[in-house]
Write a structure and sequence with these properties.
The protein is of the alpha/beta class. It has 16 helices and eleven strands.
């Protein structure tokens, strides 16, 4: 992952957006109910509703979890923050989540643990500008979603010499973005698929950059809680092995991965295939660089005033766990 530079303070609306993400994590800290569920041998894994979760969907369709002796239920959530919150409240035992979303919730839920990365990309998240907006210097209003979208937006502006403070940040859900763009309520947004494609299809926007163009890459982590991991490490490693195999299968057979994803979440075929091509799927250890990159995200949240305590990243990120064992 490319190093992340320090990010400047944005608008009060942007602060409120991240505050909402934090608020979801505040419902209650990690509980023991997930441990009880695992004692039966079953495991519930929180996933999203897009191609980021293709390895999970393909593994489920091909029966890879069952072949590994695992009783797995994939539980879908519309937003990454909701999935992490479900983990924190014991509704699920594991989750797939972006690095930025997980870090946002560490202050309220310090028991969260990131075990490994299973994907990364500098192409999947795209900058969309409304037709008629010539470039970054012409931007006056941008739609944001708390977390990954917001940080990516700030990175884009800074990379193009635009102060985030000069742009009005409008918090909305991903599904709202195309309509806001069409009405002229926003000049653009920085989002993952299918929302960039939606702007193109409705004829109101265009993709002008990907985050890799300004050296910004995201990772998806497999996360759990320390209490569950303490009693279920063999199960966690078995899930990792399945995801490692499934990730390789996604890379080898994108068409099959797209079919499994569409069957699970009813996505568009062309968009799904494009997204799978833009994402690099592979189970990899977290490293010291992962911790350093995570610290820049903490710095961002601290700078905009929504994080006031430094989380213990060296504990939350299990560096080397995937291949060397849990610390």
């Amino acid at each position: 992952m490319a190093p992340r530079s320090t990010i400047k303070k944005s608008s009060l609306v942007a602060i409120a957006a991240v505050a909402a993400l934090f608020a979801g994590a505040c419902s209650r800290p990690a509980t023991e109910s997930a441990d009880a569920a695992s004692s039966t041998g079953s495991i519930r894994i929180a996933v999203g509703i897009d191609a980021s979760y293709a390895p999970f969907f393909l593994a489920d369709e091909r029966g890879l979890f069952e072949k590994a002796g695992l009783d797995v239920e994939l539980v879908q959530f519309g937003r990454g923050g909701e999935a992490v919150d479900a983990l924190s409240t014991g509704q699920v035992q594991m989750a797939g989540s972006s690095d930025t979303t997980t870090i946002a919730q560490l202050q309220q839920n310090p028991a969260l643990r990131a075990m490994y990365s299973y994907e990364s990309s500098g192409e999947y998240i795209k900058v969309v500008l409304r037709n008629g907006v010539d470039g970054p210097q012409s931007i006056r209003k941008l739609g944001i979603v708390a977390g990954l979208s917001q940080i990516s937006t700030v990175k884009y502006l800074e990379a193009n010499g635009v102060s985030p403070d000069s742009v009005e940040m409008i918090s909305a859900t991903p599904t709202d973005m195309p309509a806001l763009l069409s009405r002229g309520d926003i000049d653009g947004y920085v989002m993952w698929e299918p929302w960039p494609a939606a702007a193109i299809e409705q004829g109101t926007g265009r993709v002008v950059a990907t985050t890799g163009d300004f050296d910004w890459y995201y990772h998806h982590w497999a996360i759990t809680t320390q209490s569950w991991l303490d009693g279920n490490e063999d199960t966690a490693r078995a899930v990792r092995d399945v995801l490692s195999e499934a990730s390789a299968d996604v890379e080898a057979d994108p068409q099959a991965a797209a079919a499994a994803t569409m069957a699970a979440v009813n996505t568009d075929e062309a968009q799904t295939l494009t997204a799978i091509d833009e994402i690099d799927y592979a189970v990899e250890d977290l490293t010291a660089t992962s911790v350093a990159d995570a610290q820049t995200v903490v710095d961002f949240y601290t700078e905009i005033g929504v994080m006031n305590n430094q989380p213990d990243l060296n504990t939350a990120l299990l560096v080397g766990w995937s291949t060397e064992g849990s610390r």
